Amino acid sequence: MPEVPKVVVIGAGIVGTSLADELTARGCTDVTVLDRGPLFATGGSTSHAPGLVFQTNSSKTMTAFARYTVEKFAALHHPDGWAFNPVGGLEVATTPERWADLHRKAGWAAAWGIEGRLLDPADCVRLHPLLDRDQILGGFHTPAVGLAKAVRAAEAQARQAISRGATFRPHTEVLDIVHSGGRVTGVRTQAGVVDADVVVCAAGFWGAELAKRVGLVVPLVPMAHQYARTGRIEPLVGRNTELAEAGLPILRHQDQDLYFREHVDRIGIGSYSHQPMPVDLANLLADTAGEPMPSMLPFTEDDFAPAWQAARTLLPALGDSKVEEAFNGIFSFTPDGFSIMGEHRDLHGFWVAEAVWVTHSAGVAKATAEWILDGAPQVDVHECDLYRFEDVARSPRFIMQTSTQAFVEVYDIIHPYQFRSALRGLRTSPFYARQQELGAFFYEGGGWERPAWYEANAAVAQQLFDDGLACPPRDDWSARYWSPISIAEAHLTRERVAMYDMTPLTRYEVAGPGAAAFLQRMTTNNVDKSVGSVSYTLLLDETGGIRSDITAARLAEQRYQVAVNSPLDYDWLARHAPDDVTIRDITGATCCIGVWGPLARDMVQPLCPDDLSNEAFKYFRAKQTHLDAIPVTMLRVSYVGELGWEIYTSAEYGAALWDLLYAAGQAHGVVPAGRIAFNSLRVEKGYRLWGTDITTEHQPAAAGLEFAVRTGKDFVGKQALGAAPRTLLRSIVFDDAAAVALGKEAVYADGGCVGYTTSAAYSTTVGRTIAYAWLPARVAIGDTVVVDYRGTRHTAVVHGDPVVDPQMTRIRR
Ligand code: FAD
Ligand code: THG
């Protein structure tokens, strides 16, 4: 790519205009933005968005995107008036569940640095006098948020870009992407080809169709959403000027899937309370023919009737009015509610920035500009990465089902362990039938069914509790999708031995003459060790941020088995792999049982012709051998921190392997154990979970993973390492044995919020909940911090980690 690339942006909506601004602000001034429509009310979603910007999101990244958007929009100038009106935002609760959940949301706000306050009903009504006080239990007020005038914000950003050299061309439809030799070279329009080194598809809900032309799946579904304006509302008359339009906070009534804003003396009502209405783009032109814009469908009045009822109940002043203008507007929904960003892996220079709300637009544009120009965005964007989807999640059926579900749940209270009920059972391990017989309760992850605990262990659990094993009571929220049986499973892993289904652990065969050199260059630790070695090592991005933590088992001179965290790891490795290296996903073709616990050796040795003693088969070594008649690969690795092995075999032997081990384990009291026990044990042991505890936002030193970095060799990201970390990932141990945390709780010290938890789990070994927390480096081991769990404050002590077995005696015996 030339020093200053020639960039074409498809789409002059809020994303395309903001991106042009961000690129040109960084000196990348050869930018041409093409739009099919007129400027700047192009006819896309931006043209009619009512522009409510709420910032707080369970995702730190999405919150950061929204925060940047507000900062940026507030500073924009437009001749017609404001681009952002910071009227504040109020989210009200009309049910006890919502009121409790607003406490959780207030925690996210504090953790991610958004000013906000929980208010009683009287204060809510003081802020928003149209509210019926008797309907509400309380509200969450965030003063900095407000209304974006999306078209003005788009134009103001476009003008800034134009002043630096960018060009905007209206009425120019992109018909195709032009490329050669695996690189984009331009786009084709009716007026001919426009040359480009970089093409960014910011075409809103049309983007998936365009991307399809270059073989890219962009999992989004265009969906209609109702927006209505009332007639004049008496109490509003005279309150707002035509210019300001609004003075009351923007309002959310999520229990009824509604939001509200003022339009001078009228109220605008947005509703998600109707059936999902996915849009078929093939019919769109015909369906929108009578409408002012190609992103507007005719209003369907019957769908709005319940919303109107609910709106009048919350805001009785609407009573005498009626809906005067309304439409069904179209915008994108995705399977997980996150945006879609990144570069096509097989077509260099083709980027997407799709499924972006006005709310997150400037943040997404900034990150995209950094990514294109600097090689990596400053903010961690893994939740939005184009390549985060498993193959199964890229099927049209899956995209439609999950995106539709995302629409239905857009304002719902979602528990962190609540998994979808549709499209289950897609990926099951060879042990699935056994797990069902044993009464497994399944979580879902990456399409896999993953036992969370086994009801078959209920009796042994009860016996342990009767004998005195602690099992603190849980509140309703934390008791959901959870069972006390998991405590017994964790306990028995430390005391006896347990079997864990590790099949969903994604693994690749990395092979070829260049395999060792490739992994040396891509990862931080020394992996060029003897055949039979296993290495724990990190993938860093160019900025030294942790892209993943992986293990690499050298099974032959030119062949490694690499176990990773997500499809993003395949993407990263595949982008960098030289011709003499192949990367093959072997997850589904193989399976794995983790056998861990002090009795693991007693249980497995009799099945194995090879010596499994500590001397003969050392910690972090691999062996290809047999258990009874079954060929297996054993890795002496344990994410739960116990003696034992990950035992792999190919899928056809899976059921036999389970039966063999289960039968052999009976004499040793083996139990099958699930994800909850697994998570608890790894948190005790101080092991990080990528994506939850650590991301690209963190360098190894901050994450406590410097031990896996060898500075004596070269690797991607090395140049960027060095600065002393300002925040550190710490283990904290709660004082109260009954205190619970689930992760993403705000952490306080010295009276202010200083950080947030990531993973949290009840540890049966220490009889307390343990969490990881990102805390300022000045917070020392032994200090007390306060954790806000949905409004309940718990004290916890910062602990050196790992909390359990820092000497590694359990694991190395
Ligand atoms: P768009 O604004 O759709 O821009 C895409 C552009 O690409 C269009 O101008 C289109 O003409 C152009 N284009 C497409 N294909 C081509 C092609 N082949 N060649 C050339 N040009 C092409 N978000 C919020 O944050 N807050 C809200 O309160 C809010 N309310 C909403 C209410 C409604 C009723 C709707 C419909 C949406 C709402 N949204 C809201 C969502 C928000 O409007 C969109 O997510 C956002 O505007 C998308 O911006 P964009 O730039 O990606 O897409
Ligand atoms: N097993 C295997 N691969 C994996 C995981 C796994 N890859 C992805 C993910 N899980 C990686 N996470 C970890 C985290 C910690 C360890 C292993 C995988 C671990 N750490 C030792 C420690 O910190 O004490 C490593 C010590 C060393 O480097 O010698 O065991 O679960 N196969």
Automatic annotation (TrEMBL):
InterPro entries: FAD-dep_OxRdtase, FAD/NAD-bd_sf, FAO_M, GcvT/YgfZ/DmdA, GcvT/YgfZ_C, GcvT_C, GCVT_N, TrmE/GcvT-like. It comes from the Bacteria. The keyword Ribosomal protein does not apply. The keyword Amino-acid biosynthesis does not apply. Keywords: Methyltransferase, Transferase. GO terms for biological process: methylation. Residues 731-805 form the Aminomethyltransferase C-terminal domain. Residues 374-429 form the FAD dependent oxidoreductase central domain. Residues 431-713 form the GCVT N-terminal domain. It holds the Pfam family DAO. Residues 6-371 form the FAD dependent oxidoreductase domain. GO terms for molecular function: methyltransferase activity. Belongs to the GcvT family. PANTHER family: AMINOMETHYLTRANSFERASE, AMINOMETHYLTRANSFERASE, MITOCHONDRIAL. This is Glycine cleavage system T protein (Aminomethyltransferase).
